[in-house]
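Look over this record before class:
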Amino acid sequence: MDEARIVEESGAKGYGTQESKLKLSKVQSAGMAAAMAALVISLCLPANVYLTKTGIKTVGILVAFLIMLVTEALPVVVTSLIFCGLMPVTGVTPDLGTALTGYSEPIVFFTLASFGIAAAMTTIPLSKRILRFPGRISGAL
């Protein structure tokens, strides 16, 4: 059997099919364009009294990152990896290792754990049971 037939029979979507192409909404396209514009503008601005050239680049990367996150132009993981890679490319950090040093802080793991617990609480009806318990004891439910 040739490879195309195996993919077709298994129902898997290949890389060249219409379903696998990236389809962006108007908001996502506008967000991507706005993020690129913010990044290009920050790279072209000169240093001033308040911020150095590196500071302006950092603010530009932050603004572009926030635009990409709010508009959900790309998945969060892809957006994060792209902007971590942009930091050494634009000269904000000397190398990729320096750009990734913040991920070794304990607060990152605390935040991830908090999101995980919140996701678990919303999918499991435990929170409803906890809220109904006082009502059952008091006779209100």
